[in-house]
Amino acid sequence: MRLTGKLGILLISILAFAFSFVEIRHRARFGHFALPGLHADVLTRMVDYWTAYEARLTNFGVVPVRITVCDFVSDIGLTLTLVCSRFGEWDRAAAHH
Fold first, then answer.
1. What distance in Å separates the CA atoms of residue 57 and residue 42, rounded to the nearest whole number?
2. Which regions of 1-97 does DSSP assign to beta strands (E)?
3. For residue 41, how many other CB atoms are within 10 A of its CB?
4. Dmax over Cα atoms in the chain, in whole Å?
5. Higher pLDDT residue, 56 or 95?
6. What is the pLDDT of residue 9?
7. Which of 37, 75, 76, 78 is the most buried (most CB within 10 A)?
8. Are 39 and 30 within 8 A, CB to CB?
9. What's the total number of domains in the chain?
10. What is this structure's pTM?
């Protein structure tokens, strides 16, 4: 086998290992596998006497995805970033019921 063939097999093996590692790590953390593309998970944590919810957005695709974000200052002075959502526009039929 020539050197280019061996390098090709090595590259494919490294990519397969990296993909498997990411998927297994995601499964262990969130309890499900992620399909390729943009993926959202909801994280919950207890803060004092209430539950805080946080969305984690991850791109499992091979091409970049452009999203719109808004930087803002909260009521207590924290600088935060909010992913602007347009969920109501995704399913127009469900919005009218």
1. 9
2. 38-47, 50-59, 69-73, 79-83
3. 15
4. 65
5. 56
6. 92
7. 37
8. no
9. 1
10. 0.56
- As a whole number of Å, the end-to-end CA separation of the chain is 63
State both tokens at 7: 């390098």
At residue 93, the pLDDT reads 57
The reported pLDDT for the residue numbered 48 is 82
Residue 44, Cα to own-chain centre: how many angstroms? 16
Cβ–Cβ under 8 Å, residues 60 and 73: no
Among all chains, which residue has been given the structure tokens 């399913």?
91
Q: Give the 3-state secondary structure of residue 68.
A: coil
- By residue count, the chain amounts to 97
The tens digit of pLDDT for each residue in 68-77 reads 888 888 888 8
What was the pLDDT predicted at 54?
80
Range of the domain at 21: 3-95
Alpha-carbon span 12 to 24, nearest angstrom: 18
- Using CA atoms, how far apart are residues 80 and 67, in angstroms rounded to an integer? 16
